[in-house]
Amino acid sequence: MTHPYEPPRTLARARTERGEIALRRRGTGTGAVHELIVNGTFAMDSAEVESERALAEALLPASTILLGGLGLGFTAARLLESDLSDLVIAEIEEPLIEWAHQGLTEQLAGVGADPRTTLLHTDVSALLTEPGRSFDAIGLDVDNGPDFLIHAGNAELYEPDLLTAAVAALNPGGVLAIWCQQRSDDLAERLARLGETDLIEVAVERDGHHIDYAIHRVHRSAGKGQNGTMTENDPTTEYRIEHDTMGEVRVPKNALWKAQTQRAVENFPISGTPIEPALIRALGLIKGAAAKANAELGVLDADVADAISAAAAEVAAGKYDAEFPIDVFQTGSGTSSNMNANEVISSLASDAGPSVHPNDDVNASQSSNDVFPSAIHIATTDSLINHLIPALRHLEESLQRKATEFAEVVKSGRTHLMDATPVTLGQEFGGYARQVQLGVERIEAALPRVAELPLGGTAVGTGINTPPGFAPKVIATIADETGLPLTEAKDHFEAQGARDGLVEASGVLRTIAVSLVKIANDLRWMGSGPRAGLGEIALPDLQPGSSIMPGKVNPVMCEATIQVGAQVIGNDAAVGFAGTTGNFELNVMLPMMARNVLESIRLLSAVSRLLADRCVDGITAHVEHCTHLAESSPSIVTPLNKYIGYENAAAVAKQALKENKKIRQVVVERGYVSDGLLTEEQLDTALDVLAMTRRPS
């Protein structure tokens, strides 16, 4: 027996400055499900709470816990099952706190009544930045994660500044756990800069779909704060005094950097984003190779050079990325980051034996003005060759496999988004594969300019303070260690005063982005539907597409690709402008250029593989539907031009469209066969849609 649909019952509704929030119940008794609706959008319900309880498990054991977001109370309820002493819950929506005190649901009632619970009507960010507060564990379940925000204003919770504040608010050995609708690589990368991280994935089945919720965690080391070092925000902080030519500077006691790095940290608290790890690696490679060359040329003693080389190798291996805290938006030459590398390597090398000076020894025969742009070009060359090109070839192969698979699938061609003469699905996928292949060829064509290094030009391109033979030795060493096709600049004044090679590389990345956006757009158009779209192909179902429309699935991988394309195109616009700022002997927008180019490569590399693996490989063709659309298109009248003329063919097309008839039927009815303009055999041959896709032999 079927039961009539019973609409949800609204238990409570309230309007706040952030919009409307409603608590509803579906069903009755033990089968009742409570759901939270925010601004008309489904936020959560009690039908499946495994991931909410998993967030609590990720925080335990702990005595004092801060929970950002009350929700329906399932995370808090699980925490209260433990022997914690204090649970502070920050909830920005005051009605939720009132409903908990009123006991509108069993879970909320239990949380509100427990004496260990403190319910605060506040934004959790205010508690994270409030001096004097500290917790053993902090859990954030304020939104759906950085990639699926319900409230755009919550984006700052996932940004470096507040993440840093959250870790600083932890007691030594504490843990920060963040619930997300799905894993976020960007969030994981940000947390990795703050301590040891791990990921907990919670697999659930919901509405017939498999979902992997994610809990990102970062563990604070005992006695340490952001970047794994003592910080000013940490009550356990201790400092040491360092000196430079401008005087004394307080530096966190355990930091490997020194005075100049600290000044830059204090001067540039802008984006919270440091330079890319690939750039740090390149700086390490240069410093190690320079030390060896300086020893061979008599500039450095062997023991000093060996200590520098060993320390630089560890920096290049990524062991000390957290010791590079300077914001990417800094001095335009990158001097701050070059000195950061000099100081960190100096500290590591001095710990190993001889006293090593950051300027006199680590920076010997060098200037920031030739080292930093050289590091950018090394990092870019490496990333292009070892990351982007393999990723693009992986995508090309995926597309080419589909081109072969769909070689005989006829479909309607489209120009101006209107019906055109037939093509095969395989021809379209072959075109996509060729676009990606040309992207690789464009990279390879630009590489000789990108791989040309200004190293050896020092301050202005003249090579002052550099011994003869220094640059060729350093570049040869790095090329040998990395296998990269690095060369010395043919003209050091061009190589230091301009960054045209990077501008060219960025332009290639923009072209690749444009290609990927075109491909992704075509795929989502062809997969549109399932009833009111083109419906020519089926894209893999990856995740639920709507918080309110059950069963809806969206082309999310195509949309992610398009967003990457937009970001890369924007990055290129900034790089292009930055290229104009090469005033006289030095460009002064180098860190931003490095950030944008390396980010573009990283994004394109990641999304190319994902598009191949999670989208293209799983595409299937709706063959019969494609054939039907091709044969129903009035454009297939085109081959009849040579028999009945353009104007008569146009009349046939219009009549077929108006009367919903096949082209063949209209041609016969209008008497073109009986009048002898063409035979039935010629008519059938002319209207063979597969034959129309073949190029004349």
From TrEMBL:
Q: Where in the cell is it found?
A: Cytoplasm
InterPro entries membership:
Fum_hydII (IPR005677), Fumarase/histidase_N (IPR024083), Fumarase_C_C (IPR018951), Fumarate_lyase_CS (IPR020557), Fumarate_lyase_fam (IPR000362), Fumarate_lyase_N (IPR022761), L-Aspartase-like (IPR008948), SAM-dependent_MTases_sf (IPR029063)
Report the domain of life of the source organism: Bacteria
Give start and end of each Fumarase C C-terminal domain: 636-694
List this protein's GO terms for biological process.
Answer: fumarate metabolic process; tricarboxylic acid cycle
Q: What is its main location?
A: cytoplasm
Residues recorded as binding substrate, renumbered to this chain, are 333-335, 357-360, 367-369, 415, 547, 552-554
What pathway is this protein a component of?
Carbohydrate metabolism; tricarboxylic acid cycle; (S)-malate from fumarate: step 1/1
Its catalytic activity?
(S)-malate = fumarate + H2O; L-aspartate = fumarate + NH4(+)
Q: Give the EC number.
A: 4.2.1.2
Instruction: State the similarity comment.
Output: Belongs to the class-II fumarase/aspartase family. Fumarase subfamily.
Q: What else is known?
A: There are 2 substrate-binding sites: the catalytic A site, and the non-catalytic B site that may play a role in the transfer of substrate or product between the active site and the solvent. Alternatively, the B site may bind allosteric effectors.
Name of this chain's protein = Fumarate hydratase class II
Q: Which organism is it from?
A: Naumannella halotolerans
Gene that this sequence comes from: fumC
